[in-house]
């Protein structure tokens, strides 16, 4: 077992982990931050995306023990300080960018990472960036609309599905 200390959603946390413990397991089972979903555990679906030092990362694809000193943000850390929804979360709500909601935490985290590096992405750029996030409800159209709206662009200009 290894002791690991990292900052998660602005708070310093420590825990004993095995070398094989995935970040997704550390977050969900160690810290009870169950907003990070696990859909495949094989780095394919994107449900488990979190930010590690500002980059979108599939948390089922990294070992917690390798993240000593890292800054991690999960979906639980995305709301505004007063508890209200962030602009991206609000856009998903307003544009019906979720159905069952299983993919939503990963979609929101990926979208936030995209907008941090490209504040006004085109529809094609959004679709390309979200390629690693699978929505089994196939609600992609409204997800892309939500990301366009969150970037301050007119989501209404998107062609109908
Ligand atoms: S659970 Fe990590 S990519 Fe599917
Ligand atoms: S909303 Fe159900 S998987 Fe995306």
From TrEMBL:
Enzyme class, spelled out: oxidoreductase
Gene3D superfamilies reported for this sequence: 3.10.20.30, [2Fe-2S]-binding domain (1.10.150.120)
Q: Record's superkingdom? A: Bacteria
List, alphabetically, the PANTHER family matched. Answer: OXIDOREDUCTASE WITH IRON-SULFUR SUBUNIT
**EC number(s) given by UniProt:** 1.2.5.3
* Name this polypeptide is given: Carbon monoxide dehydrogenase small chain
Where in the numbering of this chain does the 2Fe-2S ferredoxin-type domain appear? 2-78
Q: What GO molecular-function term can you cite, just one?
A: metal ion binding
Database matches in Pfam families: Fer2, Fer2_2
Q: Quick check: keyword Zinc in the entry?
A: no
List keywords of the entry alphabetically. Answer: 2Fe-2S, Iron, Iron-sulfur, Metal-binding, Oxidoreductase
Which InterPro entries is this protein grouped with? 2Fe-2S-bd, 2Fe-2S-bd_dom_sf, 2Fe-2S_ferredoxin-like_sf, 2Fe-2S_ferredoxin-type, 2Fe2S_fd_BS, Beta-grasp_dom_sf, Diverse_Oxidoreductases
Which residues are listed as membrane-spanning? none
Q: Which SUPFAM superfamilies does the record match to this protein?
A: 2Fe-2S ferredoxin-like (SSF54292), CO dehydrogenase ISP C-domain like (SSF47741)
């Amino acid at each position: 077992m290894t002791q690991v200390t990292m900052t998660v959603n602005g708070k310093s946390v420590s825990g004993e982990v095995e070398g094989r413990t995935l970040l997704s397991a550390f977050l969900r089972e160690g810290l009870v931050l169950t907003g990070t979903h696990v859909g495949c555990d094989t780095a394919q679906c994107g449900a488990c995306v979190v930010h590690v030092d500002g980059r979108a990362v599939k948390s089922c694809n990294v070992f917690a023990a390798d993240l000593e000193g890292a800054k991690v943000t999960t979906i639980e850390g995305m709301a505004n300080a007063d508890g209200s929804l962030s602009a991206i979360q609000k856009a998903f709500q307003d544009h019906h960018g979720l159905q069952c909601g299983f993919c939503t935490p990963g979609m929101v985290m990926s979208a936030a990472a995209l907008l941090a590096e490209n504040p006004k992405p085109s529809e094609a750029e959004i679709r390309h960036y979200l390629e690693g996030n699978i929505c089994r409800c196939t609600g992609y159209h409204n997800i892309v609309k939500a990301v366009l709206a969150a970037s301050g662009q007119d989501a209404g200009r998107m062609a109908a599905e």
